[in-house]
Amino acid sequence: MTFSRFISISIFLLVIHFSLFIMGSNHAAADITTLSIIPQPVEMIIGSGSFVIQPDTQIVASDDAAAEAVKLIDALAPATGFRLKHLGAATRDGNLISLSIDSELQDNLGDEGYSLDIKVNRIELKAYKPAGLFYGIQTLRQLLPPDIYRHAPVQGVAWTLPCASIIDYPRFEWRGLLIDPARHFIPKQDMMRYIDAMALHKFNRLQIHFTDGQGWRIEIKRYPLLTEIGSRWHNSMSQKSDLGRIYGGFYTQDDIRELVRYGAEHYVTLVPEIEMPFHAGAAIVAYPKLGFDPEILAALPIEQRREKAGNLVVPRPYTIEFMKNVLDEVIEMFPSPHIHIGGDEAQADRWATVPEMQKQMKELGLADVHELHSWFIKQVDAHITSRGRKLVGWDEILQGGLAEGATVMSWRSMAGGLEAAQVGHDVVMTPTSHTYFDYPQSKTEPVSIGANPVPLDKVYTFEPVPVELNTGLIKHILGGQAQLWGEYIPCEQHREYLTYPRACALIETVWSPKESLNYEQFITRLASHLKRLDAAGIHYRTLDHDAK
């Protein structure tokens, strides 16, 4: 946050506080622990009394806020028996909810912040951008009884909102989760349900790991064998009862566009990940020219190819052209500014054994395979940049020299992110120590990847900004993201169990002010918040799980 924006926000908050004071009501001092809002807002003043939602409650919206007003009407449907249909000019002064876009709030709230003022007879929700209105609606939902999350109308409940004044905006712009349909395919409807829960908690990035050794899950029209062959794979890394099962499934381009639209409606940007040069076994089986000994591999039956293909592509000209063509179709489907290409865990030493690669390195003046790895990433980076997008890769892309313009996801530790930020590259912090949600939550968990546990309280200590980073470079830390690699996540229920409530802890670390974080207060709010997840049918890990 810039100093000028800090001053603007401070003045804005003082004005809000003074306005409440001169109203003469019994407003208490700010205490954001008495109401269960996750992530906790930047500032909240609790008032006396409440606003009662009635079947004839009016929704009033400026033209540029109308789309979000419709979403609010839909969100309130269980509270109103689907009778709340008012949208337009107010026909009376009382019992109305007003939504508006205010261009003067840019310096105070940014693109995702909002101002929410709840009085006895009126609610006013304002923002600089529609995203802010959307997040304000999520806060309104969290202030209502948990039954608001049920799909069917619930009658006989007092649908009230406590009077309060809230100013809120995120600390970081990248607040993400990663899911992995490459290992276990995730049906489209399950993906949408996952986005629903993300939006409630104000996450705004969903990275989708579409490709790996176990499967290629996204249709590429120029290379149809990627899904005809590459989407079917024997999974050997799951529950024992699933060993040997063939996992299929992929998303058509129409499916992808539908998911992208759904994400956009919930202000969740879908970030595609197409793995290269490693984790590419499914692609090599479909197109042997990508791998080692392509002629020998192509002559083998498909099942034998799977055994021999490996996971590492060979960065010959054909491979470069292939990946560029794939990325062109991916870019056409995804409006995301960032395109993820993996770049991790490449066993590049194997390239040194290939005469073709030895010759190529000599011609390019590259000293070793690490520089060849960097050269490959730079070719892809230049292509993505030429299409107006930004390359994102795991921190191994630092090896051999960082591709210009690339964004680094630092997963092995915070060190890679620190190194990248120090030379002016953007960073998303994703360390295994705090953000790998496929890791167990305790030592008594079901079968998993087998790494050290990442319990809820440890997630809450996640801090994306390294203490060693110069203050002037903090702007390069875009935020943080949790990973749910899918080897041991065969179904929706287990995915949700691993996500929540750890995602509730993570979102506070990347949304709420650092100085306001308090784990004991968080747990108090979380106990109430879990009732919302119950009502929504989300399968989460209970707080007393280990005591059972």
List the helices and strands and how they pair.
Layout: H1 3-22, E1 43-52, E2 58-61, H2 66-80, E3 96-101, H3 106-109, E4 114-118, E5 122-127, H4 130-143, E6 160-168, E7 174-179, H5 188-200, E8 205-209, E9 211-212, E10 215-216, H6 225-228, E11 233-234, E12 246-247, H7 253-265, E13 269-276, H8 281-286, H9 294-298, H10 302-308, H11 317-333, E14 338-342, H12 355-364, H13 369-386, E15 390-394, E16 407-410, H14 415-422, E17 427-429, H15 432-435, H16 456-459, E18 477-484, H17 492-499, H18 502-511, H19 519-536
Parallel strand pairs: 2-3, 3-5, 7-8, 7-18, 8-13, 13-14, 14-15, 15-16, 16-17, 17-18
Antiparallel strand pairs: 1-6, 4-5, 4-6, 9-10, 11-12
Helix pairs in contact: 2-4, 5-7, 11-13
Describe this structure in words.
The protein is elongated and about 80 Å long. With 548 residues, it is α/β, with parallel strands linked by helices. Helices cover 36% and strands 17% of the residues. The strands form four sheets. The protein has an eight-stranded parallel β-barrel, surrounded by six helices.
